[in-house]
Design a protein that fits this description.
Layout (H helix, E strand, L loop, with lengths): L2 H41 L3 H9 L1 H9 L5 H33 L4 E3 L4 E4 L3 E5 L6 E4 L4 E3 L5 H16 L5 H15 L6 E2 H11 L3 H6 L10 H14 L8 E15 L5 E11 L1
Antiparallel strand pairs: 1-2, 2-3, 3-4, 4-5, 6-8, 7-8
Helix pairs in contact: 1-2, 2-4, 6-7, 6-9
Length: about 280
Amino acid sequence: MNDQTHRLTIRDRADELLKRAVGLQTSLQKAVKWLKRLTQAIHMEDWLQVQNFFAQKAYTQIKEQDTLGFASELQAIEDEAQKYAVDAQIQLRKYIKEACQKEGITPVIDDGTGALTVARLIKLRFGTRSKNLKIETISKRFSLTSAERKAVFQRIVELYRKIWGRSFDPQQFVQRLYEAYRDVSEDGKEAQLSEVHDAYWRSSQPKVFFETYDLDRARDYTADMFSADLARLLESRVATTKEGKKLHLATHGGGLPVYDSQGGYQTYKFIRFDPT
């Protein structure tokens, strides 16, 4: 073997060794980054993120390659993750109930299993095997990417203020409700409550909306808001317009749920106004 051959062999071996070392360094950096994020999620008691970390492809690679040299320790943490998630869910429920009470957000009903219902219309739903966490209302449903307590509570507060934080005048509402009803029906005839809701929504829009029909310019008046206003109207016992038209709501399956202050509800599908 001549000198040139020796040089090529040494160079190739050095290049290959460097390549392997860089690959190991990259894998190690990724593994350390993953472990730091997992540890942070555990310290924040974010059980949802913890569960998601163990479902990631990165974790499978770290464990199979034993990049960090302690696969058994990682397996032990994974084995405990489900128990940890169950306990963290219990603590999250407790935190939400206490935080709502402190903020005057009531009622909060905990069925102990699938959902925590806040202020009648907001459901915090815990998925099976602690794999997901959702917030649901009549008109919205979305999954949370984090179960960090303060972040979850903030999302609930935002929805609560949007639904229940608006000013409300029962006499003014029943009057506008009657006007929306007359847009789709006649006195004494039943109308679909959903159609009256649509008419009420249209009457709430600014003139500029009808120039372009750009929904970004539209004012929100969701089914959640409509349900909340009907609940407040029923609680006020105001049921007659200034013209003397009396409101009647008819219950029926598949209608709009309207909750009372204790969390019970009726489902209303039809509406009419009669002369008194």
